[in-house]
Structures are given as structure tokens and as C-alpha cells.
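We treat protein structure as text, and this decision shapes the records that our systems exchange. The remainder of this section carries one protein's record, kept here as part of the documentation:
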Amino acid sequence: MSQTAFERYAPFIQEYIYRKQWTDLREVQVEACEAILDTDDHVIIASGTASGKTEAAFFPILTSLYQNHSDTIGVMYIGPLKALINDQFERLSELLEESYIPVWPWHGDISQAMKKRALKEAQGVLQITPESLEALLMLRPSDATRLFSDLRFIIIDEIHALMGTDRGLQVLCLLSRLEKVANCKPRRIGLSATLNDYEPAMQFLAAGSNRKVQAVGIKYHKRTISLCAESFVLSNDPEEAEKVMQEYNDFLYENCHSKKCLIFTNSRNAAEKTIADMKEIALKKNERDVFYVHHGSVSAALRHEVESTLRDSNGPTIAAATLTLELGIDIGDLDCTIQIGAPYSCASFVQRLGRSGRRSGKSQMMFLNVYKPSDRNPFEQMPWELLRAIAIIQLYLEERWVEPFELKAKPFSLLAHQTLSTLMTFGALSPSELARKVLMLPAFHSTVSQEEYRKLLRHMLANDYLQRIEDGNIIVGLKGERIANHYSFYAVFQDEQTYHVHSQDGEIGTLDNCPIVGEVFILAGRTWKVLDVDEEHKIIYVNSVKNNRIPRWNGSRGRIHTKIIQRIGQILREDIRYSYLRPKASQVIDDARFIAREVGILQKSIIPYTERSFYLCPWVGSKTLQTIKNLMTCSLKDSLRIYSVFEGHHYLQITSDLSVAEFTDKLSKLQINFHDPDLVLPKNQVPRIDKYDKMVPDELLRVAFLYNELDVKAAVEVLKGL
């Protein structure tokens, strides 16, 4: 036992460690103890999944609070998920049992009685989501002052899930607003399992504050990894394809049905389909149904039931999940994880890999891929998902690389949101005072100009989101009030149009599209028939039946980083046999390498197709390829005499009157203004992408699309180099 850290902990923490029969402290816990107790810095704690990060943060922080009581809430824990807060509440309640330090959960599912008690006592630890903190600051600023005037620490869990998103920028704004409203200067502690480069995370954590930041943790958590990948190739013959799918399902069943296992899919549809197939096999074999579904459209109650079953069951338990079980909710020790297809990012892979072997230190992950090659062109014959899985695995094994995050360059949607929220907090403000309060928030002070903010305010005033009163001050307008007074306002991520599905036992989940009465579909791993639809309240009433139609939910493909695409190119060039590939998967890669070399897609970026058509495969990520497509269909269309641009898997098919030589010659001399939205958008097109874009003028939305969604500089470099 490391006495230096252990002896410094408060007595109730020492007793907790004895009760848990820990024999030593982990290195990250020793480092964090020194960083938190011996400095006044913000701290990033970044180490592997199940390496004790939560305890590394809370043990010294609670010791500090125990030794020097705060007059108000002393510690605020910000969690990205209600389920994560509920999970941490249970763990903290046990830890704090004999400390006399209270802990309060605070989110949309917590009762008003509990919140009133928290407001009355105003002591200890508050666990809250970003959305509930937004509501608290906006609607109860005086309570916020009373609750947080002696706030010492803010812990931000799963910080990597926030960085680079509107929600992350919202959190930075909230921290800055909280400090001003409550007149406090708390230290910030960020927790993450998927950081490779600490520097951007340190800058994110410190944004808007004057404190230094230090990072602690074992950069590469010592963990044994067992990987396996298999591929199943579908033929054009329907009978043969059906046999292959049966073989695939049997293989999946044999590798999961006797284990405690998570099956990750990239869509809700795939999660439901996977579990429906597994249940069908279990029924045929007369074996126990131990299969569950966990995704964002399954009701909170049923998701909690799945989490509890995974955590508490001693026998086999299998759940198919999307991103919802990627973050650190405690679901106990798993035997393995299985990925259907491939994750879109290395960060996602690291999170999913770390879900198994939490206690044993041995993570097991299997990749399963089904693909149907197309004869249309060589690119459509490539097994892109298997290639992506290998690329992600190799980048992790070789470099421990994960994607760097990018702060949104022009967050105008969030700017409109924070403008309304600020006015709801303070009431009437002069234009200059409003600009000072909003533009000094960390999300905007170096990205949004005063002129851009003037344009936004003029538009919001003209459209009654804001209103100017007789003395010249600005208040929230009628349309703004309707938006700000709805509970959905606190969240800055897009709401889905959802219908709530109810049986006689309660809510089952949600659908994006409304089925008709009598229709049958699968949700939460069970089959339901529509009895009635309440259109006004968006409720679908159902009862349980036997059938197997999977509903479709809206969803978008994840963005893939250029480094992953370039690593795929390297896989196709090299002759290495990866030890984790099973025989069929190895054969698929051999075939892909043969096609790539025969066609020459590795030697040149442009491959002729017909006399006036060619393929462009520049081996770049989703963002850069999308930018190239927008340039080709907009500002470069006439000069390059382009008729059509079709986007496939990581390539473009272009039809032009120019020869390839003429085409590339013109591109090599390209001179354009990187800051002109007309480059990438037709003059009448206004993309509305973010939640509050309806409050933003068209001119600014075009600028936002240029800077937030595309990368013109990278695209032009690629095109000039062709």
C-alpha cells in the first residue's frame, strides 16, 4: 500500500479502502492525490478504462472537503448521461456513508422533493448534467449564488465526449457564467480514458480561467488485449446469401450466448436486428433467452433494467448497444465485447475495448463483418468496414492514436442559445452589456466578431426572438420566450421528432416515424402490434405479439478521420498478415489487395472510367472528401466543365468534358479565397444543421457551414497535388 497517498486520505476513505480489501493504490491515484492536494492547478486525469480515475479524483477532493468544510456545495460533478450520474450516485453514497458529506443527484428524472432538500442544505457534492446546470443558472440565478459561492472543485467526467461538440462549448460557457453569478473560482478536474494528446484537453479544461493545468495518469494503461476479426462475404445468389447469413448468425451466437457480453453496433436498427436473430436461434435450440437491447430509443426504465442485469447477473447476459453503453456506466465485468462492422473512430474503439476485462486486465474484442462486393467498380468491391476495423486496430497498437478534437470555429447556433439564456438570467440588458456578457464566454471570445454578433442580434430582434424596450435595452421576445420556456431549450444537441411507444406495462421506447394501426415492429428486443395512435401527444399504444419487422430510425454515418483512411491505403499496400484475422477475413484482405494492385488505386488518385468519366480517390477523411465534392459541384463546376459528381465509399465519380491531364492541370493552378461561402454553396442554399440555426441569419449560416462542416484549405492542398 502506498502510504504517502493512503495516509493523507480522510479516515472514512481509508476505512472504505479496507472494506473493499484493496491491497494497494494505483499509480494514477497516487499521482492525482499529489496534484490535487499539493497544487492549486486544474488537473486532467487520463488513464485507461477501469484504472481507478473516479477514485483518483474523488479521494483527495473529498479529503480536502472533509478537512476544510465548504459553506455551500463544495464539489460539482458534471456527467454527460443521467445513467452515469445515477451510477456514480450509488458509488459515492457508499463511500460517503460515514463522512457526513451529503451527495445530491440533479437531473430531469430527480424528484422536486430531492432538489428542494439539496437547495435547503446546500452542502456536499452535487451531481448534475450540463442541461440541468443550464436550467439552474437560467431560472434560479439567486439559488445558484447560494448553492455555489464556496464551490471548490468541478469534476467533468468523460471529458473526451464533450470536447469538439456544441455541448462541450456549452459546458465551458456554463462554467464561466457560474463563476460570475456565484463569485467563485473552483478548480476543474477532467476525467478521460481516451486521450492521447493531453495538450488540447488541457486547453479545453482551462478555457476562460487563469489557472495552470497539469495532466496525470498512466498514458498507456497496462492491459492485455485479445483481438479477433472475421468476415462473411455475401454472393449475388439469394439462396447462397441466405446460407452465409445463417452461418454468420450461428457464429455470433456461439461466440456470445454463454458469456457476459456487449455487442456494439453502429445503428439502432442493427442492434434490434442482431438481438432478434439471437433470440430466434435461442428459441430454436430451446435455450434461455438472455438477450437484451440498449440504445437511445429504448425507454430509460428498460435501459436501467439492462444495465442492472449486466451488472448483477452471475450467468450469461448479452446486450446489443450503440453509443449508450460506450461511456463508463458500471455494468460489472464482461467476458468480451463484439463489434458488428467497425467503429467510425479510434476513440470509440478504445472506449468499447475497455468495457471488458475491467477486473482481470485482459480485454477481449471480436470484430464481425458481413459485406457484399459490387461489380459496379473496384471501389465498391473493397471490404471497407473490415479495412476500417484493421486500420483502427493498427493505429491503436502502433501509436495509441486517437482523433484530435476541433473546437467549432463559428458556433452561431450556440451563440443564439446563450444570448437567450443570458437574458433569461439577467432580464433587460443594454446591447453593449449583453455583447460583453456573451462574447466574453470562452466559446465565442476568439471566434465571433462584434460585427457577426450585431448581425445575429439584428436578426433576432427583427424576428421577435428578442425585443428592444423603450429605454433601448433588450429583453427576450415572444418567440424567444416560447423557445426558452420549453424544457428542450436546456439541451443544445438536436432533438429528434419522436413517438413514445407504450404498452400496458409502461413506456418501451421511442420511434422516429409513426407506424399505422395494426402494424407490427420490434423494439427493445420484443415484438409489438400497434393498437392505437395518439397523434396530439405523440403516443403509440401497443401490445406484445410474435413477428420480426425492425423499424428504421434516422441516423447519420460517423465522420472518419483522414489518418484512418490513409492507414487503409497502407493496409492494401503492405503484405503483412495480421495475427487477429481469422482465415476468411485474411482471404478477404488478400482479395482486396489483389484488386487494388490490379486496378492501380494505390498508385494514382485519378483512374479513368469512360471517355468523359473518372474516379477520384484521394485517400482523405470524410470532411475533406465532402469539401472536395462541394467545390466540384459549386465554384469549380464551370471551370472544370463538370456534368456530375457521384460520391461512393471514400471516392468520387466525376463526369467532365476535360481530359484527366487538362483537369489536373487546371487544379494545380487553383487560386481561391478560402473564406468565401460561395465556393461550396449555391447562392440560394442555406444549410440548417444545428439546433438553433432558425434564430441565425442566412448569411451567418453559410459562414458557419464553410468553417464548421468543411475544410477548404485541406481540400485545395489535395486537389493541387493530384
About this structure: The longest helix spans residues 166-182. Residues 499-544 form one domain.
